Amino acid sequence: MMTGAEVTTLLRSKGFKATPQRLAVYEALSHTTAHPNADMLYRELVPHYPTMSLATVYKTLDILCEVGLAQELNVGEESFRYDATVESHPHVRCVSCGRVDDVPVLNDTALLSQAEIATGYDITGRQIYFYGVCPACAAKRKKQLH
Amino acid sequence: MMTGAEVTTLLRSKGFKATPQRLAVYEALSHTTAHPNADMLYRELVPHYPTMSLATVYKTLDILCEVGLAQELNVGEESFRYDATVESHPHVRCVSCGRVDDVPVLNDTALLSQAEIATGYDITGRQIYFYGVCPACAAKRKKQLH
DNA sequence: CTTAGTGCAAAGCTTTTGCAATCCC
DNA sequence: GGGATTGCAAAAGCTTTGCACTAAG
Question: Which residue ranges form the domains of chain A, and what is each CATH number?
């Protein structure tokens, strides 16, 4: 996670202006573990930035991804989610309540090199998604059986 | 891959009717390695089934996934892609031309159990996506450097 | 002061839905 | 024959775009 000053410097070094809206989007994204989509971020920001628009959130997220401050996730929903932790790490989605959690980094370098050999691709990135039932939903289901 | 007769039997056993449209969608999906999305399938089918509609392709793909004849992929595009090979296996997408290929099955059971322990989730499925440059695009790029 | 960025509304995509006509069983 | 399915058109989400206004540097 970077400070506002660091984000400002990074944006400018890449030729982007450091606007309050951009800093706010990064701030919100870097302080949540919910892996929000654009709309979730927008709804969280509007109360504090009444003029914030959804279009600006989308444009900002594109830029954050471009400068390496965020990554885009595709967990099998209609919308993209975002993560301010840019190091490659797996994610897990609860098929019952929809929450998305980080999975602590696993060593997948063996998979990656196996995949390169098997396909001939020059592989530069990967995403691993797990699907299952989160502890909270598992507990709820257990309760309902009684 | 299943024969038309087998697909017919399976659909009926799950309470679905075996219509020509459904058999055609499965037929097309099971004979390609392109991992098509709904629109690609539709465009391939229309010449042979002039009354085929995109809505029917979407509805059929839902049913094929539900009865275990197909799986949905999320390779980071706007649309979903589909694969008639339902065994869990990784996919790789070329960031240059957009093609999506299968990666021969890798042993990822270790990852899965590590993820269960780390997250507390009861994990029932996973998807692994690699991103890189396919051999054809790599060759093209090399050529352009001369 | 100059150019990039914001925010609104409209458009563009993919996917879903409502419904009359049709077809499977 | 009866109920599921088709296919059309319209609607519903998510995301992008055009453009006048504003603000960053």
Answer: 1-86 (1.10.10.10), 88-146 (3.30.1490.190)
User: Which of these, A141, A131, A90, A99, lies nearest to B122 by C-alpha position?
Assistant: A131
Convert the pLDDT of each residue in B43-54 to its tens digit: 999 999 999 999
Helix (H) or strand (E) holding B65: helix B54-66
List pLDDT tens digits, range A124-140.
999 999 999 999 999 99
Element at A81 (helix H, strand E): strand A81-83
Query: CB under 8 Å to A120, separation ≥6 — which residues?
Result: B134, B135
φ, ψ (nearest 5 deg) of residue B144: -65, -20
Residue from B65, B113, B122, B133 to probe the interface with A (highest A Cβ count within 10 Å) = B122
For chain A, positions 116-145, list CB contacts with chain B under 8 A: 116, 118-135, 138
Which amino acid appears at position A42 of this protein?
Y
Is 0.90 topped by the overall pTM?
Answer: yes
Contact A111, A72 (CB under 8 A): no
Tokens of B68: 């275990």
